[in-house]
Amino acid sequence: MGAIKKPNLNNATLSNCNIQNINRYSLERASNLQILDISKNALQEVKSYAFTGAGNLVTLNLALNRISTIDPTAFHLLPKLQILYLQGNKLRTLDGALFTKLGALRFIFLNHNELELIEEGLFQENTELENILLNDNRISVFDATALGTNRLKLLSLKNNRLAKLNLRDAEVEKVLVANNLLEEVYLSPWIEALYVDNNKISQIQADRSNPMSIKTLSLENNSISTLEMVSWMQTLEPAIVRNGAQTIHQQGQQPDDDC
């Protein structure tokens, strides 16, 4: 990518321009740039300190490229970045230091990549983070300590290869984890909505000594055979938990005619 030489520019859209490279001098004069869209290009890697000079970036869109490698220091000079789009690339691993300098990050899109595991502490330094999208990858290992102590609004892990999921200490409001290989899930007291359709779940566990916040539970197409599994969730609002041919109705709700 050629250098941006207009210091007053604050919004640049360069999508679908066949950009193959970003070097540390490409944005050295882009001090006022707040939004940069370089999606739908031919990038294969993001190099060290690639965004030097663009320290006021708030939104960075790198989606739908061919990125398989990101240097651990690539985002280290972006202290104001709030939204990072990385979906639709070829990422398989994420270095543990990759996001540590993104203290203002609120939304990160990592869906539709080739990720296989999410390591401990990956988002630990991102204390403002609200939404993490990791759906449609190949994730078989998810360490909930990757979330640190962040209070998330949304964690999406749909369409992966997870066989187990321990969210005991995860402070997240809404969890989407449909279409995996889960047999059991361990919930935290902070989860308000859990969508685990199309798994193999026979048990949901939680520390019952703590009050639960769960209000919405979707368990369609799992292996639930008894209401005991959900009876202790006193905060659960009227809902239908479908289990293949078996339908369990809660709190006196009448079945629909088409169930």
Automatic annotation (TrEMBL):
It holds the Pfam family LRR_8. InterPro entries: Dev_Immune_Receptor, Leu-rich_rpt, Leu-rich_rpt_typical-subtyp, LRR_dom_sf. Keywords: Leucine-rich repeat, Repeat, Signal. It comes from the Eukaryota. This is Leucine rich immune protein (Coil-less).
